[in-house]
Design the sequence.
């Protein structure tokens, strides 16, 4: 076993720690015995240098701008496979045969209906309730309709919960949209595919056999695939932390939805479009770039920068190509696209962004496509939830089977008062 040696120069004592190898990416230093052997903690706010688990699901190389699901490159999956192919791959560790995909698709269609009782929850929200608040509540509430089927120790039951959650989240998402407008809910149509069904439930009038263009279905299906998983990001780490306490996946994913809502994370896609609308014209871009660079100004360029990618986010590259190919067919807002392009052009040549390796991330372009699909800003992070639901539940299942996993309980560096006397 290879090791690294730590020397405490206060005592001259040496401590050896094992190096655990990885199949791709950095190896890890096993510090599990660090505290018991040297009486100190590691210190890593935000976990910039900390591996929280071992996983076989997703691999990211931030320097190369590489992303793989179960070893397959994201560009191949996003351009050659459907979102349901990717869901099956993440959950079952292999791509489905035609027969397996058909069976999986049929099961999700049948499970896409939600209990009528959930309408009461949606109707209880005020008119201006944000869809993300409704969504996290609805996913948590979903568990109350399956209280006899929450045995997380049963692998078969856990897989059924996974299928149930993946199938019902688009319906819940469409219900949040319909509730926000106060218009009648549209039930799933099992004659329609996963992604088409979501657009149908968002747009149709009651009783209308709405035609949806294939170009729109394919664009949204690609967006779902690009959002499917992303190793131990903030919301997935939240799901894992809740899962580590033994909580069922509805509770864990409801917590993940709330973590994703933050504008530094999944909420960024909504902020990007809001920002492009505020900038409004390419002539204003320079002033906003200057603000983004000013450390005294809290303004940040939304959709730029990433904890892991220190190169282009491969998902942003795929979305940019999708934009170019569908610009006319989808009727992308030309002015906002020009503003986005100008931001990217300036930022990629500006030392401030180059030194900090700040590139466009997945959120930078998503909003332009979603706007063209007539999905309102308030629903952008909900789209992220739909895509990421399979990644969250796959990570939840992996944790259940991880013999090394313990309840998440980090320590701290205490810098408070020593001994106050009453
Ligand atoms: C997602 O983790 C994932 O995988 C997430 C995600 C997924 O699929 O799950 O990829 C989805 O959340 C994408 C990121 C969406 N968020 C945004 O677009 C919001 C804007 N970006 C930033 O807030 C920021 O870049 C983060 C939060 C994404 C990353 O922050 P880090 O890694 O903690 O980096 P940092 O805040 O320490 O910034 C390093 C430097 C700082 O400058 P200095 O203090 O060194 O002078 O870069 C600067 C920051 O001020 N900086 C920015 C910036 N992002 C970082 N300056 C201007 N604009 C920005 N967008």
Sequence:
């Amino acid at each position: 076993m290879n090791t690294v040696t730590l020397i405490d120069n206060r005592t001259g004592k040496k401590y050896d720690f094992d190096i655990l190898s990885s199949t791709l990416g950095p190896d890890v230093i096993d510090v599990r015995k660090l505290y018991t052997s040297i009486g100190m903690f590691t210190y890593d706010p935000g976990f910039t240098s900390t591996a929280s688990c071992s996983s076989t699901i997703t691999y990211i190389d931030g320097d190369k701008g590489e992303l793989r699901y179960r070893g397959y490159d994201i560009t191949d999956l996003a351009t050659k496979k459907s979102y349901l192919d990717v869901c099956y791959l993440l959950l079952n560790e292999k791509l489905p045969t035609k027969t397996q995909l058909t069976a999986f698709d049929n099961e999700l269609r049948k499970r896409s209906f939600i209990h009528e009782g959930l309408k009461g929850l949606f109707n209880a929200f005020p008119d201006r309730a944000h869809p993300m608040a409704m969504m996290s509540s609805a996913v948590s509430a979903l568990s109350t309709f399956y209280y006899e089927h929450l045995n997380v120790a049963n692998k078969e039951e856990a897989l059924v919960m996974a299928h149930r959650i993946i199938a019902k989240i688009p319906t819940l998402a469409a219900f949040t949209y319909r509730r926000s407008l106060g218009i009648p809910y549209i039930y799933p149509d099992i004659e329609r595919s996963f992604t088409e069904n979501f657009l149908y439930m968002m747009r149709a009038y009651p009783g209308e056999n709405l035609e949806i263009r294939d170009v729109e279905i394919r664009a949204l299906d690609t967006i779902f695939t690009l959002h499917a998983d992303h190793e131990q990001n903030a919301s997935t780490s939240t799901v894992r932390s809740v899962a580590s306490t033994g909580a069922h996946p509805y509770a864990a994913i409801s917590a993940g939805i709330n973590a994703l809502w933050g504008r530094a994370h999944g909420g960024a896609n909504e902020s990007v479009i809001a920002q492009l609308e505020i900038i409004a014209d390419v002539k204003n871009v320079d002033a906003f770039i200057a603000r983004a660079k000013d450390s005294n100004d809290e303004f940040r360029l939304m959709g730029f920068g990433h904890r892991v990618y220190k190169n282009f986010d491969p998902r942003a590259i795929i979305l940019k190509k999708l934009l170019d190919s569908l610009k006319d067919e989808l009727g992308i807002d030309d002015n906002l696209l020009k503003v986005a392009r100008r931001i990217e052009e300036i930022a990629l040549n500006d030392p401030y962004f180059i030194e900090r390796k700040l590139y466009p991330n997945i959120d930078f372009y998503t909003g332009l496509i979603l706007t063209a699909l007539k999905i309102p800003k308030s629903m952008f992070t909900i789209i992220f939830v739909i895509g990421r639901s399979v990644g969250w539940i796959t990570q939840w299942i992996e944790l259940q089977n991880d013999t090394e996993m313990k309840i998440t309980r980090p320590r701290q560096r205490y810098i408070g008062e020593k001994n106050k006397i009453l």
In short: The pocket of s-citryldethia Coenzyme A is lined by residues 46, 230, 233, 264-266, 268, 292, 295, 300-308, 356, 358, 361-363 (CB under 6 Å). The mean pLDDT is 95. Residues 45 and 412 are 9 Å apart (CA to CA).
